[in-house]
Hints:
By secondary structure, this protein is α/β, with parallel strands linked by helices. It is 50% helix and 18% strand. The protein contains 17 helices and 15 strands. 46% of the residues are buried.
Amino acid sequence: MIPLNTYSYLKDDNKNTNSGLALQKLLVLSFIEGSCVMVAELAGGKMLAPFYGTSLYVWASTLSITLGALTIGYYLGGRICNNDAEKRKKFLFFIIACASALVIVMPVWANFIMKQTLNLGFLSGLVISQLGFLLLPVLGMGMVSPIIISLLAETKNSGTAAGSVYAISTLGGVIATLLTGFWLVPLIGISIPCIVAGSLLFILNVLFLRPQQKLLATLVLLILAPSALYIKNAMSPATDRFTILYQKEGMLGQIKVVDFKVKLQNHDMTTRSLLVNHNWQTWIDKDNPSYSFLYYTRFTNAVISCLPAGSNALLIGLGGGTVAKQFEAHNIAYDAVEIDGRLPQLAKQYFGLKGTGNLIVDDGRHYINVCKKKYDLIIIDALLGENVPSHLLSIECFNSLKNLLAANGKIFIEFDGIGENETGMAQKLLYHTILKAGYNCQLFSSVAPDLDGDVMYLASSGTLTDFDTAQINKDYYYALQGPMKNFKIAFDKVPEELLTDNNPALDFYLRQRMINVREELLKKQNQSFLDDDMIFYY
Length: 538
């Protein structure tokens, strides 16, 4: 324990209390500062999601900028410690005031910056955006700990003081991470935790280091005003073209249910989408919820229609319930596994799912590992934009799936197509892995013979001719038709590499595709939201 007389130079400006109280105040500031760092980091990543997604690139940028800002902050804070105690206290007050104010206005500032960087491309826009709204507040808070340590310790006690400050600051970060990630963000969104954490640090800083009550009230009101106005505007559910029916943060990131007007084949209509981090997960006709605009759903419907009466099916990835509704339409008993507990309710409330199947909230791979049931058809529909769950496509997972398949049971997997400038290595690796796991496998393209539509895999340990005559029907949005066998494709030069749990190579081979997907969203879909003044997060 550090002797209190070590801190005899620390005085409370309001009351003649002992140095122990001053010590406690500095440690409280350190605790709240640590909380603010983690709130800013988590919010910084979440704010990016509607613009830039949640891929490895996004979190690598968030972590590197956070750590880089702390590194610079620690260094600059250490340089300030060369001043006398009174100057250090003045510096500490000024730095905390600036850093906490930047956290309070982060929702407004981040939204403004990201709108300006949309045309810079994915990687450039991502990094420049975070440098603009995350670097300075975290850098400022990084300067706090060295200054507090210098105020608390003389040379002989510097180690104990440093350990105490970093421990209490880290504890604040741990608690803030758990509260923010598991409770606050899903419940009240991204902006309010920033405002609350930043305001608390700002107020305590003024009370402990410069207790001027009138100034405090004025400053807090001035700083809170832009963020409060932003949240008020963000709560507005409708624009000229878009109506937001639901918007929450959570397990998968941000989820929106949006109605929007489009002109398709010379028809003005209102469609409804489930957006996960502003990526289309489900897209239906609002007036006809059974109609999906996503091409691959014609193929899932064709496969499901061929199942004999009494069949059991497993769907991994419920989304808005489009495929589950197909099971219901054909009277097929099904289990649907979805990792995000919000989606089953949204599928029923907004997308017409009756919910006659067994809706399970679980990770797909965990369910596969513990399930004891047998299924005639397993559909893996958990691939979303730049987010591909490698653990559901490894050879170990396919070996485990054998235990769930009934005699001659089938596995259906939807994968995005191969773009003009892409090698298709990821799709070919998946095909090779399915074969090596002991399955027969057929490949289909929604725009056969081209490969740039949806690439679909149909695998079985038995025969695969059951679905050759299953019919794909055209409609006003999808122009192709015919038996499924007409949509078969083949890969040339299949690689020998396998997808394993220890070698999830999909992330590596899909890195350019991840960038392409987000840049396409940035340039077209997100721009249409911005043109209509739709809020991306609140």
